[in-house]
Design a protein that fits this description.
8 strands, four-stranded antiparallel β-sheet, single chain, alpha+beta, 10 helices, 2 domains, two-stranded antiparallel sheet, 4Fe4S_Fe-S-bd
Length: 226
């Protein structure tokens, strides 16, 4: 008998994406609507580890209009939407309005905690992973409960992520968004623009999954609106 989750995983792998875990909504829990326009019974998060989707995205992007806005979001929606249609689910995205609680879902399904940079710290991938969307099902799906992973930030001495930002945008007080944005857009922001966030790259964990420089530059350009 076919295993739906294994089949979904196979379909996603063709695009460099992976299932990131899921859960069944409990009775009485508020849930977004599923495919049948009634509250969904379960959710399966879809994402990536490292730069695996990048070559798939690039091949798609080459065929799109030159000035397409938010191309990675558009690609993710198309790919995850097609998988949702194949497996009878509703696809949703982190950028959907009103926003869905993707970060809370992610912490719930993988037992992760935020790093000092706000990015969830993964025990294997470090900071080099992302959630690209989710599938909402009208029925419950077989889900394995997450383990309780070690939070690597607790074992990190010196917190290099907090000490390496050239403008001190990260601190115990939170993220100084405008300070970071001004720096990335400014004349001294080339290292961040071209090779990625210096603070994120200072993290010693999951380095084998670190995004390639061109991938980081793509994300920094989108962040800065350049």
């Amino acid at each position: 008998m076919s295993n739906p989750l294994a089949d979904i995983s196979t379909a996603l792998t063709a695009h460099g994406l992976i299932p990131r875990g899921g859960f069944n909504f409990s009775a009485g829990e508020e849930a977004p609507t599923g495919l049948s326009n009634v509250p969904a019974k379960s959710v399966l998060l879809i994402g990536q580890a490292g730069s695996a989707p990048w070559p798939h995205f690039l091949r798609w992007h080459e065929k799109q209009p030159r000035h397409l806005k938010n191309p990675l979001d558009t690609w993710s929606r198309e790919v995850i939407g097609a998988v949702a249609e194949e497996f009878g689910a509703r696809a949703v995205s982190p950028s959907d309005r009103p926003f869905l609680p993707f970060q809370q879902w992610a912490m719930r399904v993988e037992g992760l905690k935020p790093s000092p940079l706000g990015i969830l710290m993964h025990p294997e991938y470090g900071l080099w992973h992302a959630y690209r969307g989710a599938l909402l099902f009208d029925h419950q799906i077989p889900i394995q409960a997450p383990e309780n992973p070690i939070h690597l930030c607790d074992a990190c001495i010196g917190k290099p992520c907090l000490n390496s930002c050239p403008v001190g945008a990260y601190s115990a007080d939170g993220f100084a968004y405008e300070t970071c944005l001004s720096h990335v857009r400014g004349p001294n922001g080339a290292p961040c623009r071209d090779t990625g966030c210096i603070a994120r790259n200072a993290c010693p964990y999951g380095t084998e999954y670190r995004y390639a420089a061109e991938v980081q530059a793509f994300h920094m350009k989108a962040f800065a609106g350049l």
